[in-house]
Amino acid sequence: MYKILYSPQSVKFINKLDTKRKEKVKTRMEHVAQDPLAHDSNLNKIKDMVHGYRLRIGDIRLVYEINSAEKQIVVWKTDWRGSVYAN
Hints:
Layout: E1 3-6, H1 8-16, H2 19-34, E2 43-45, E3 52-57, E4 60-67, E5 72-80
């Protein structure tokens, strides 16, 4: 199982979510941590990042990187669908 690390921005965003959405994010990320490269229709590789992926959870998007050598998933950004790719 991979360890999940969250950026301060991701923690702040997730903490502002209602309880139902927080649980959904937690459950999905725990599922990804079991096998980060498993096929999932809501999981896509990001073309501009070597190890970057995007996970869709309803209207929420998580952008993260997989570090296989250290068995870590680093969630860089978490935001609403329309805002996650904006600088």
